Amino acid sequence: MILALSTTTEVASIALATGDRIVQTRFESRRELARTLMSRIDRLCLDAGVGPGSLTAIAVDRGPGSFTGARIGVATARALASALGLAIRTETSLALLCRAARH
After folding, report:
1. For 66-102, what is each residue's pLDDT tens digit?
2. 59, 63, 89, 90: which sits with the fewest CB atoms below 10 Å from its CB?
3. Quick check: 61 and 5 in contact, CB under 8 A?
C-alpha cells in the first residue's frame, strides 16, 4: 500500500493506494498544514483500516506550487519513510498530470 501526499496547492490531498483501491481525502491547507497533516494522515489510515505496517512506500508531490507546502509535504514523507524503513518517491505535479492524461 502506498501513501501519497500532495501539499503544494491550497487544497492538499492524501491518498492510500493499493492495486485498484484508492482512498483519498482533500482539505484546504493554507495556514494549518504543518499542524494538521500528521493527524489527517492518521485519520485516513484509521478510516481505511490501514496500519503503518501495511505501507510499502510513500510518494510526495514536490511542486511546482507553494514552497512551504512542498517543504512540509517532503519533510513529513521523509520522516515517515525513515521511521517505517520505507522507500520514498518524489514527483512533480506536472509529471503526474501528464501521466494521468495518458491513461
Report:
1. 999 999 999 999 999 999 999 999 999 888 778 778 7
2. 89
3. yes
Which of these, 41, 15, 39, 13, lies nearest to 28 by C-alpha position? Answer: 13
Q: H-type helices in 49-92, by residue range?
A: 67-84
Quick check: 89 and 57 in contact, CB under 8 A? yes
Q: Please, what's the largest Cα pairwise distance for the chain?
A: 35
Burial 19-54, CB ≥16 within 10 A → b, else e: eeeebeeeeebeeebeeebeebbeebbeebebeeee
Helices then strands, counting H and E runs in the chain, come out as 3, 5
Dump pLDDT digits (tens) for 14-32.
Answer: 999 988 889 999 999 878 8
Q: Rounded to the nearest 5°, which phi and psi values hold at 90?
A: -105, 150
Q: Give per-residue pLDDT as tens, 45-65.
A: 999 999 988 999 999 999 899
